[in-house]
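User: what does the whole thing look like in 3D?
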Amino acid sequence: MAALKYSRQRESIKKYLASTTEHPTADMVYLHIKEEFPNISLGTVYRNLNLLSDIGEAIKITTPDGGDRFDGNVAPHNHFYCEGCRRVLDLKMDMGPLKELNASAQQTFDGLIESSSVLFFGKCQNCLKHPSENQ
Amino acid sequence: MAALKYSRQRESIKKYLASTTEHPTADMVYLHIKEEFPNISLGTVYRNLNLLSDIGEAIKITTPDGGDRFDGNVAPHNHFYCEGCRRVLDLKMDMGPLKELNASAQQTFDGLIESSSVLFFGKCQNCLKHPSENQ
DNA sequence: GTTTCTGCAAAGTTTTTGCACGTCA
DNA sequence: TGACGTGCAAAAACTTTGCAGAAAC
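Assistant: Here's the predicted 3D structure for the full assembly of 270 residues, as structure tokens:
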């Protein structure tokens, strides 16, 4: 069990994640942190993002378009992935309906499950309005 | 717009997907089809899985453990990803609660969304019972 | 001084693609 | 025959890892 040591790079990554709601990829984080630390490497960014995710200070969201997304908001919430523009959106729904849904799932699936988060797939407002502009 | 032509390999892949509920990875499909077509290549398996997914005859499910899963059941249903054993399970819940959840999400997110499917994350029955055996 | 972290580069994993040949219609 | 599909291998895309030196404590 390794003790955690401070690093300016990790602190900068945390600050960046806390400042945005766009759920950046590792590469987007890398490009941003590079402005402050021109020598930072992508490997360091990956190591820190995984570390933060492991200790619960960030969330990793796997999407179908290659490249995980990262979220500095670790308060319980769910996500929506737009299959049109490929953005990840925060859903600040209350957890009541989620519990109902969980219960419904448990009734039909032959065994208990305990769901902690949910990822919705579909189209966002903008892509519903302008189907031609996106794939 | 290319016309679709029959191929024995694709037919075999479809048959396999229809016969299983374990949501195999491309590699698992490859290994299975290889028993019937020893010379089939992984590239062909990927091409056919993507093709089937594109024309709506299969579903591709991206999970956080690397390697997409494929499902031959294209009837509307949702999935559960167990973070313990990394299995993908089918959820045969009715769509009522999902619509409620959607509505709840739409009220708090500033814009309409239209969700077609949902992926739950959590622990399955077996992993809840035996936490030590899985990560 | 010791442990942890970083930058770099190499390697690993999964998926896609170019091309020559084979199959379907 | 002509269009589409396959096998193979190379490449692409994304992520992890080994190592020597730097930073933290």
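In plain terms: The mean pLDDT of chain A is 87. The helical segments of chain A are 8-19, 26-36, 42-54, 96-108, 125-129.
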